[in-house]
């Protein structure tokens, strides 16, 4: 009885094992069949899709008419199918909304406004060359006295510089007195006085001669303007020739401040209110700009123009040679504005990616006039209210290149068949 129970249990266990093996084998068979069918369907679908060309995703601007390895990267070329990216238009491309979201694309409207320029430029202080005088005796003579002055000293108008004796002046005075006392004509007398003026005799000494009618033998040469002595090397007892420089005097109010301004913003400079002057030595001081002008020459190396400002310096705080800062605050005329990061500049052309009403991405060629504070002023190519892409430009630009949108932008009158274009038919960015 026990042996029958054991045989019965063994039969049941054997049946279960056999059934399991059959089930596993059947499962693998069915699963393999389904995979084969799916693979066959996929291959059939792929073979039915039209391939336009093959390309390297790392260099999408180069197209190939056959599959294979990329000559640029160690990777297989990828086919570009005619039905990719959904509906295509002669004016742009469509990109899957999920892909657009993954790329983090951002757009912005084209607006109309002014570019604001706020730029600080290094400058330097120099003498006002309009207030530069050279003092000469204009006749041969002798230095009788040199007043205690030297280079760098401030002088006021009328400050004595040297006392001199000029023989020619003494002789001309004697002639004047002789003619005056013996009935010389007025023409003769005026002629003698004019000769004294031309010989350099100071006007106040001439008037003293006429009023006192006495000969003067010692004359004082005085400073003709307020300023700083920049040249002075006479000594008492020296002979002095008619072409010898007695002193050089340079005015200190106003002074000049010069700066190199980029030629691209020269057209924005209109009035003195656009300029602010500061110097490191007096950071809390402001200085009044009387007038300014742009010098006629340009530095071809730096592409800058020299701007010269005449600045009031009554307290003489501004010293020639000082460093200064010129701050420009100005605005352009009204123009179309877009963020500068939206501009794709290839060196040959400038373009942006716009979004039309149907959601297509359309490349457009533009002309950038000016740029400031991350804003670009546009001359042609866009209209107010257009939408431009400001981020994710590279991938969209590559896609536009692949689908031929860039070529259609450059040659809108033609519609090339992308599948027949040779390799390197289009230039990238």
Automatic annotation (TrEMBL):
Alphabetic keyword roster:
Ion transport, Signal, Transport
Could you say which residues form the signal peptide?
none
Task: Specify the CusB-like beta-barrel domain's residue ranges.
Answer: 254-331
GO cellular component entries = membrane; outer membrane-bounded periplasmic space
User: What are the CusB-like barrel-sandwich hybrid domain coordinates in residue numbering?
Assistant: 133-250
Coiled-coil-forming residues are none
Q: Where are the transmembrane segments?
A: none
**Family the entry assigns:** Belongs to the membrane fusion protein (MFP) (TC 8.A.1) family.
Heavy metal binding domain sequence ranges: 53-80
Q: Where is the composition biased (Polar residues)?
A: 416-429
Q: Which residues form the Multidrug resistance protein MdtA-like C-terminal permuted SH3 domain?
A: 336-393
Q: Which GO terms describe its molecular function?
A: transition metal ion binding; transmembrane transporter activity
Q: Which domain of life is it from?
A: Bacteria
List every stretch annotated Disordered. Answer: 409-429
Q: Where is the CusB-like three alpha-helical bundle domain?
A: 168-217
Q: Which GO terms describe its biological process?
A: copper ion export; plasma membrane copper ion transport
Against Gene3D superfamilies, the record matches this protein to:
2.40.30.170, 2.40.420.20, 2.40.50.100, 6.10.140.730
- What PANTHER family does the annotation carry? CATION EFFLUX SYSTEM PROTEIN CUSB
The entry's protein name is: Membrane fusion protein, Cu(I)/Ag(I) efflux system
